[in-house]
Amino acid sequence: MRNFKSPFLFFSFFLSLFLVGCGEDDVEPAFEEVRNQAYDLVVVSDANANVPVSFTAAGTDLERVIVEITKQGSNTVVASNSLNKIIHENLNRINMTVPFPGNDQAPSGLYTVNYRMIAKNGEQSVGTYDINVINNVTPVLCNYTNNLPNGKTVWIRLYVPEGEDLPANDNTIYLTGSFGAREGGTDWDGGGGPHTFTRLSATCYEIAMHLVSGDKFKITRGNWDKQMTNATGAEYSDFTYNGETTFSATAYNWKDRPVVTPTSTAGEILNIPAEAVKSGMLTVVANLDNSIDATSGNYYVVEKGATSVTNGYKMVAFDKKLAAAVPKKTGVEYVIVKGDASATGKNRFGFVQSAVWDGKTNPARVTVGTFGNAGFTLGNKIVIVGGATPGDWGVSSGQDFTKTAEGKYSITIPLKADSEYLLLPEYGQWGDKWAFGSGTSAKGTFDVQGNGGNLTTKGLTEGTYRIDVDFTVGNGTYTLTKI
């Protein structure tokens, strides 16, 4: 064996390496990943928009290594890099970086890292492994105005993915809300008033406003029948201004137009701290209720049933959330505790929340509403009201769910197509409603109790459905099955 101390490689893009040269052994091209394990988590951001690939390689007359990243199940390459003109056969600990595109082109999700090692004689060694990517790289979608005009407090910026499909005589967008009368118009006028967005392009709009903290607003194309809706066509809750200088929203759909399912969305920005992302580990992320301060006290991830935090993993706070890296132990339930092992994280309804490694999803999520007593006590029933139901919005009896287990309810009921509804603890108890959070008309999760837009039957055919509700996980889930 002999050591080579002088540089001997040409790098493309950003590349660093350390090496030890070996003798004249004939070796088939070989590649060993030493940085990432299967289904590890990788977080990319504007500050570091690269997927790291670290490996050792060997092969007779090895000339080139190519790394390509594709969405899992696809052959389309979204990111690539290569190591060229290799003049030594055995490379020890090569650190490559693969530049990753914005999250409009490559949303967060599962990706496959494909590698090819090519020898001078054409001999190749190929292989793959999968990773989870959280993509926080900001796409450049619109060229917005930088400086706020005098007297204005916030830029409200709107991205309209399907803006080119809006009719030329119906693409004016308005802001409407609780500020209207104070700002020269009428409160909640539905649009059509003085607060009109400037159209920068078919997909980009902006308006400078003078808002004060607590102001609520919505976005329409002139009236309530043309209000902006989310990616599944459901109505947004009122937006609330909290003092920020820019407020960004995406108009995926409109109430009066056919629902368009986004083919690529930026999705959630999840700025998980580096200390909670480790090779060979599962990252656990806890979403906290607004009443819980992530920076107050010590939080740990422990195995369910632990009597102390001695062998726990301390969590770090970020964006009103918590995160920690824990071992990938199949079948083990991890729970969040505060201070000691006795204060276990539960959801709002008092059910202990746990994260389990399923073999590939990373990070694992839990939603914690309390570390003490339940914030809301569930009764022996819940009820359904709304235009989608036989009793409409004014119903006062006859549409009760049956309790099937602790925290679980079911009802079989006729539903109308393309209509809306809500779930309530009791008829008329609107402040404690359960409304749309995420998912589809057939299956999804509720928003935080008391918040969210109406649930909808958009995309479902009229008929009799069984609705199953489960409050034991997060904010609760719903499933509709046609009978």
Mean pLDDT level: 88
**Rg (C-alpha, Å):** 27 Å
Structural class, please? Answer: mainly beta
Q: Which residues form runs of ≥5 with pLDDT under 50?
A: 1-27
Describe the structure in your own words.
With 483 residues, the protein is mainly beta. Helix content is 0%, strand content 40%. It contains no helices and 36 strands. The strands form 9 sheets. The chain has a 6-stranded mixed beta sheet, with no helix packed on it. A hairpin with a 2-residue loop joins β13 and β14.
Briefly, what is this?
This protein has no helices and 36 strands.
How is the secondary structure organized here?
Layout: E1 10-11, E2 15-17, E3 30-33, E4 40-45, E5 50-58, E6 62-71, E7 77-84, E8 90-99, E9 109-119, E10 124-136, E11 154-159, E12 174-177, E13 198-201, E14 204-209, E15 216-220, E16 228-229, E17 239-240, E18 246-250, E19 253-254, E20 281-288, E21 299-303, E22 313-314, E23 316-318, E24 321-327, E25 333-338, E26 354-356, E27 364-368, E28 383-385, E29 402-405, E30 408-415, E31 420-424, E32 436-439, E33 443-446, E34 455-456, E35 463-470, E36 477-482
Parallel strand pairs: 4-10, 11-18, 20-27
Antiparallel strand pairs: 1-7, 2-8, 3-5, 5-8, 6-7, 6-9, 9-10, 11-14, 12-15, 13-14, 15-17, 16-19, 20-24, 21-22, 21-25, 23-24, 25-26, 28-31, 29-30, 30-35, 31-34, 32-33, 33-36, 35-36
